[in-house]
TrEMBL record:
Signal peptide: 1-26
Protein name: Glycoside hydrolase family 13 protein
Species, as recorded: Nibrella viscosa
GO molecular function: hydrolase activity
InterPro entries: Cyc-maltodext_N, Cyclo-malto-dextrinase_C, GH, GH13_cat_dom, Glyco_hydro_b, Ig-like_fold, Ig_E-set
Gene3D superfamilies associated with the record: Glycosidases (3.20.20.80), Golgi alpha-mannosidase II (2.60.40.1180), Immunoglobulins (2.60.40.10)
Pfam families to which the protein is assigned, alphabetical: Alpha-amylase, Cyc-maltodext_C, Cyc-maltodext_N
Ranges where the Glycosyl hydrolase family 13 catalytic domain occurs: 129-535
Keywords tagged on the record: Glycosidase, Hydrolase, Signal
Amino acid sequence: MKKRFLLRFIGLAVLLPQLLVAQAPAIQRVEPTNWWVGMKNQSLQLLVYGKNIGSSTVSLNYPGVQLKKVNKVENPNYLFVDLAITPAAKPGTMALTFANGSNRTTWRYELRRKSYQPLGVTSADLIYLIMPDRFANGNPDNDKFADMLDPSADRSSPYLRHGGDIQGIISHLDYLQDLGVTALWMTPVIENDELLKKEGPDRMQAGYHGYHFTDHYKIDRRFGGNEAYLQLSKALHQRGMKLVQDAVYNHVSDDHWFYKDQPMKDWFNTWSGYTNTSHKEQSLYDPHGAPADRKVLLDGWFTPFLPDLNQRNPYLANYLIQHAIWSTEMFNLDAWRIDTYKYNDVAFMNRCNQALLTEYPKIHLFGESLVSTPAGLSYFVRNTVGFPFKSNLPGTLDFPLFNAINGGLQQNFGWDTGVSRVHQTLAQDAVYAEPMKLVTYLDNHDENRYLSVIGDDLDKYKMGVTWLLTTRGIPSLYYGTEILMKNVKDPTDAEVRRDFPGGFPGDRENKFTAAGRSKRENEAFDFVRKLATYRRNTPALHSGRLMQYVPQDGIYTYFRYDNRKTVMVSTNTTDKEISLDTSRFADNMKGFTKARNVLTDELVNDLGLVRLPAKTALVLELIK
């Protein structure tokens, strides 16, 4: 009896793996979640995820769609399915059949008609950067969810979510449009469903800012999910405004679903022991640089809880590129800001950029590379420098000019100090192929607030804002800068990411309205609005040529001009009023007899000597 039982047990043990294999494939994910017919690139690679599906066969029968190859990888929970979506394919739902023997599972996959062409973002625009969690709460019902890994929301904590969402932004589009904003950039809205991470003895790290992805194909439901994001895109475009999405290709959260169950060993950059990135980008373009230093920069991790993606893995590269195209088409994006650009594999970034530009020729792409010199920054954008590697990125955040403006306003005028820094930085524009496509800024979510940097000085504030809105490039304004929000990153970045007053239920002040702002705040807001509105309506100012003159005695003058109009910008960074002798500016002023002060609407009848008060920026529209 015991012998018979033992034989039966052994027989079941032998058959059990076969029985498991013969079960119908349990598909949990297919990504991209849908696709489009009419794409210029006909290739599509589906990531298919499910338990023990690696031995499944795949078939489909849909006119115009060809199954090219089924790729099996190390992890049996993944398949990568290569398709060709030919011009003959029509919109509809195709059936993908996954079979284990006679057991089958059908996954219905939607194909839509490609219909969107981005508007692009240009120097005619003013970008407004928002951290959605800290701007406005339009729907308190989505503040927190008990089934998420970070289920808390508490405005008294700098580490927790505060409840801001996409509906809150939609509700304040009138405010943004009145300010002169034409394009909206939000820190990432993709799901960050992760545990709170301990960064120090009394410091926690949470994903309220959005840079710790856990699911690429979900807009975080605490922001309102995919539906709210679609509504925002529609609302912006109905107003003639544009939408910029924030990309993160370098890393994901360690709570991302595919980090917990990795497709293959080289999906992430791994080390024998934890290795942090060096942040030293010089190793990429240094002709004397060591390969080991380049590897640490590119493959090192930002933090122990942000796994570094290996973009040299062809399947991961396809996944990231297709997600960018999917997002552009799904949400009607007009531009991408690319986070941590200098840490990405440069060949991958060129491939990704080109894929987007091929499908969407008008789309604008600009990266974040914190590099202190124009020569160094130019490596990461289209340039005129003889680097062995040539980037195809159209634009980048202009970190050198940011440093020059902020640092220059803190210093007295000198050969290399004060406003000379602004002039000298712009004088190096020859290293960029298209300097007009660089995105300029005074502060952002990673920097000390502009007003705090310049010592809470309203006159200096106006000078910097004038430079931002009248020099070359695409200006970007950080939320709250227009109402004099201030602070420094002490003890954490959360101090420069405080809630916009009036955006949340129970706020004592509402600075979205003139009545809720102080006299000083309204003065700043009105200054920004006046200049931003003039800039938007004046092609010479936003898209014309720039000619600048070497600063003398703390006075910096430049001109923006085209065939129809000339605008003179002159800044007195000293503590004394002067009468500016304009004779040295004859190249730009010849034939003009008077001018209109853009900021005061006053008429200036004598252009020979122009009164320039202390710590003042003057913007004059010249008149013949």
